[in-house]
Amino acid sequence: MTTSVIYWEKNTPRETLLKEKLTIGPLLFSSLEKFRLRVTLTNNRTQHTLFIMDGLIKGLIDVALGGNNDRDQDNDDDRQSRDERSRSSWAEVVSGDQDSDHRPQPQQKQEEWQSEGSRISNRPHNYKKEEVEPWQKDSNRQRPNKSDEDNNDGWQTVGKPSRQTHKVPKDNWNSYKLPSDEQQYSNEVEVGARVEPSEDELADLSRACEKLWELDLSRLIPGKDYEIDCGEGKKVYQKDDMAQGSLFTWVSDDVFRKPTYARFLSLLDNYNPHQGSKEVVTSEEKQEQASFIEEISRTAPIKYLHKFLASKGITSGSSQDFKRLLTSLWFDLYSRCGTSGSSSAFEHVFVGEIKQSSEVSGFHNWLQFYHEEANGKVDYQGYIFPRRRGETPDSETQLLTIQFEWNGVLKSVSSTLVGVSPEFEIALYTLCFFAGQEDNHIQLGPYAVNIKCYHLGNQIGSVFPIADS
């Protein structure tokens, strides 16, 4: 008896299927890296066992018997459409913000810093937090289990391996919804005069941003706190999947128990990803926003940001005024794609949005990427070749330009800083918004970076890093 497993993508052209032929009993199939349909075949029976149904059984029969011709034209059209989209300008492709000239319609700002208690969420859409599940604390690193890979009972797997699922610890998430007087926060970081900007830093944005990099005390260490596998490189317009597996091999559980990281993660599922859908923000979600701002305000990067903006006269020396400024800048809802109250800086930059034209817009945060990849919603497809030779990314690289699909929708180019803390990104992007221009050429440790910052009136339309050429 011959038993094998193959993977078949329903939109794969017939000529591609026949490039590499795998013999299974009396039938011939292609060996593919991408898969959507898993089929079990044996040579002594004609029964086909379908494990994952992402197409019709007829499609399988068509491939086996040489059919599927009707689909080829559709696939060619789809391929041409996606290739044309990939040839837009670099910054537009990275941001997904060709609609950046829309003017925001901010909703009425909250007058008081603290939210008024909490209530049960009654959101109309289905983007809900999962129920908190028991968390096993005996394993800090979610490495792939090699014994599981080897123990396949004679099955042959062809194509990209299934991802290792990893549930992010949610030990304290429910407490983040509580009123301010019931919250527990970290102690203030004592850094003394280090958070006082110098005259040189006040006069030179790049020096100020480099100081923020130095003050990011919670930045992770590659190989110690997490590990990535960049896979193979590709050009922007290429749509072949160049990654054999996930971008993140493992991330230490301790990372998700860091106070600012945990509070940031609790915000990610507060949004409807479909651009143009009006957001409904509950009192509990407002409290999550407030508790996040309060937590990061105790860190060195945010303290430095406050001192810098106060020195420039952008905000007062009052910590409450400053926290209101951050809350308004990042969480106030505004109009995008003609729908008022449908977007915010936080949602666009960190969470991401899906356009009606089936393109991913925004989505420039590594924690969101890891979270969605661990939940099977992100398919990493390889890094984009750097503009300068000799700068191929590896497991130590903390500035990546990558391609992926999110909920089945392509993001041709996305750039992100990997392993940096939430407070660092909030401080960096806020600083560039108030003190910089659209292009902000700076140095972050070993990386020459252009922080691209688009304004939507008095709000952040989009902001993200690009590796400087």
UniProtKB/TrEMBL annotation:
Extent of Basic and acidic residues compositional bias: 78-87, 99-112, 127-149
Region Disordered, annotated ranges: 66-188
Needed co-factor(s): Mn(2+)
Biased composition (Polar residues): 115-124, 172-187
Superkingdom in the source lineage: Eukaryota
Start and end residues of each EndoU domain: 201-469
Family the UniProt entry places it in: Belongs to the ENDOU family.
Protein name per UniProt: EndoU domain-containing protein
Classification of source organism: Eukaryota, Viridiplantae, Streptophyta, Embryophyta, Tracheophyta
